Amino acid sequence: MHKLPETIVMDSFNPGRAAERFLPSAGRVPSRLAIGRLVRVALCAVFYCLFYFVQQVTELLAPLVLILGVGWSVLPRLIGAIGASAAAADPQARDIVTHVAGTIPQEIVVGSHVLTAWSLVTDGLLMMGAAAVCATLAAIAAREM
Fold first, then answer.
1. Tens-place pLDDT, residues 114-123
2. Rounded to the nearest 5 degrees, what angle is found at the Cα of 61, between the Cα atoms of 56 and 63?
3. In whole angstroms, what is the distance from residue 114 CA to residue 107 CA?
4. Which residue has the higher pLDDT, 24 or 134?
5. Confidence (pTM)
6. Residue 27 and residue 43: Cα distance in Å, rounded?
7. Count of alpha carbons within 13 angstroms of residue 29, beta-carbon side
8. Contacts of 100 (CB under 8 A, 6+ apart)
9. 115 pairs with which residues across the strands?
10. I want to staple 51 with a disulfide (CB 3.0 to 4.6 A). Which of 27, 98, 108, 134 is the partner?
């Protein structure tokens, strides 16, 4: 049987080598380099998990927050436009629409947080940016593993 040159053997895929990379060989004490690699991979795995989790949560919540903010900012104008067209038809309808438009709050205070329509839009856009940053950092952490 013809033996392959050393460069081809080293470049070929050997599934045993990948699995044994972090395991000490029989009768040999693990070196600091192998333990360092193991710690590095573990640390990258923790960061990957953290970044991926934040990415998933922000990708879920960002569109919802953005749509709520845009809807909240458009709703008073939409009701005002309906009220203007209803005023020509019936004065009582105009009063009702004006009353409904006046009941929409400009801000909501939850604990110590003040929520406005544009703060929700800003939060939604910032969450989209955070998702992009976390996706990039998760890809870097995955590459380092």
1. 999 999 999 9
2. 110
3. 7
4. 134
5. 0.66
6. 28
7. 2
8. 79
9. 108
10. 134
